[in-house]
Write a structure and sequence with these properties.
Blueprint: H1 3-32, H2 44-47, H3 61-78
């Protein structure tokens, strides 16, 4: 196998891996859709971030704490029967 053939094989493998992960990301969105509030628009990229989607936005400590509190309140509200 020449270096050109090897490079082509590596690119083909990378492409097949991307297709695999994209397929699973869309499948996950379809599976979770019935459990998302009506009218909420969530794209597959919002649910699962992949390396080729670009850099991940970092949250500040205050944003993380506010997000945790919001999620805890939502969880506690869901536990009331």
């Amino acid at each position: 196998m020449s270096w050109m053939e090897f490079g082509a094989a590596v690119r083909a493998y990378d492409h097949s891996e991307r297709i695999y992960w994209e397929r699973h990301r869309v499948l996950f969105k379809r599976l979770i859709e019935p459990h998302i509030a009506k009218g909420a628009h969530v794209s597959p990229k919002d649910m699962i971030r992949l390396p080729w989607d670009g850099p991940i936005e970092r949250m500040s400590i205050e944003e993380v704490q506010a997000d945790i509190e919001r999620k805890m309140k939502a969880w506690q509200a869901s536990q009331r029967f």
